[in-house]
Amino acid sequence: MKVYLDDTRQAPEGWILVKTYQEAVHLLMTEDVTDISLDHDLGTDETGYDVIVWIERNVYSGNIPKPTISIHTSNPAGYKKMRLARDAIERQLTS
Question: Would you say 67 and 24 are in contact if contact means Cβ atoms under 8 Å apart?
Answer without folding.
Answer: no
